[in-house]
């Protein structure tokens, strides 16, 4: 399983720290463009597991957070809706696997929605916008 933490919440067009900062452990599964959070991976064989939470990753930004002050192997996932979550993997290899899997899932979804021929053009345009935003912040 992987602990997950709601790190930031979207409120009145501003991203602010969430009032509750407790970590909870979940078994997390990526299915297509949805992250499913289960109570545990141990379910009775006759029972179909029911996800406690789900998170659509379409348009998400994922990045490792090696500078986290209290925990190792943490990464953030920011949604297209402005919410941000921090998740913790059990080790560095799992961290890399999750970040890669989430990037791949987002890129695949983007490519399917925009067609393969336009994907490179659109990605270059988005990179240019991000670089411009970074320059404005710096």
UniProtKB/TrEMBL annotation:
Alphabetical list of Pfam families matching this protein:
PH (PF00169)
Residue ranges spanning the membrane: these are none
Q: What does the record give under GO molecular function?
A: guanyl-nucleotide exchange factor activity; phospholipid binding
Q: Which InterPro entries match?
A: PH-like_dom_sf (IPR011993), PH_dom-spectrin-type (IPR001605), PH_domain (IPR001849), Tiam1/Tiam2/Sif (IPR043537)
PH domain residues are 1-107
Record-level GO BP terms: small GTPase-mediated signal transduction
Task: Supply the PROSITE patterns for this chain.
Answer: PH_DOMAIN
Can you say what this protein is called? PH domain-containing protein
């Amino acid at each position: 399983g992987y602990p997950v933490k709601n790190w930031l919440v979207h409120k009145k067009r501003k991203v602010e720290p969430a009032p509750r900062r407790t970590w909870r452990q979940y078994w997390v599964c990526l299915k297509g463009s949805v992250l499913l959070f289960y109570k545990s991976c141990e379910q009775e064989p006759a029972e179909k597991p029911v996800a406690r939470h789900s998170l659509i990753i379409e348009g998400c930004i994922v990045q490792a957070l090696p500078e986290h002050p209290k925990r190792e192997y943490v990464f953030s996932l920011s949604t297209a809706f402005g919410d941000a979550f921090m998740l913790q993997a059990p080790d560095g290899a799992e961290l890399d696997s999750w970040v890669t899997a989430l990037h791949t899932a987002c890129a695949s979804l983007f490519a399917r929605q925009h067609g393969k021929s336009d994907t490179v053009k659109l990605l270059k345009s988005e990179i240019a916008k991000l670089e411009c935003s970074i320059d404005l912040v710096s």
